[in-house]
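for the recovery benchmark. tokens below, seq after
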């Protein structure tokens, strides 16, 4: 089970830190990710990290502003979001892939679709007012 928290209403330029707490075991081959879905839009791939390697990915839309991290002891993933913009307004979802597929392949897939994800959280709403 994945539980997101940390969303809220902020002004443009502010920061937020989202958390994704995973119950149960996290496997070394797991890849965790953040997606977001704005009203009327498709779910968008934001960031990802491999649980046991330094691999990370950021979409162009958030690169340089968002930072993904984890606390292995707490089975928790974070998304630090700085310099928020109105276009960052969305429901943010935490996801886990347990397929064991190669990192590069997962990233290419997720850049196109979110349909291959094994587990999803219920999401946390981030609203950025301009």
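predicted aa per position
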């Amino acid at each position: 089970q994945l539980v997101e928290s940390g969303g809220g209403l902020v002004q443009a330029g502010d920061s937020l830190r989202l958390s994704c707490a995973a119950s149960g075991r996290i496997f070394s081959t797991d890849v965790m990710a953040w997606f977001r879905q704005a009203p009327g839009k498709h779910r968008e791939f934001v960031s990802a990290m491999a649980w046991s390697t330094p691999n990370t990915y950021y979409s162009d839309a958030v690169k340089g502003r968002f930072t993904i991290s984890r606390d292995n002891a707490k089975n928790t993933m974070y998304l630090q979001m700085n310099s928020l913009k109105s276009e960052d307004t969305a429901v943010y979802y935490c996801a886990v892939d347990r397929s064991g597929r190669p990192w590069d392949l997962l990233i290419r897939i997720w850049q196109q679709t979110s349909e291959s994800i094994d587990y999803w959280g219920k999401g946390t709403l981030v609203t950025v007012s301009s």
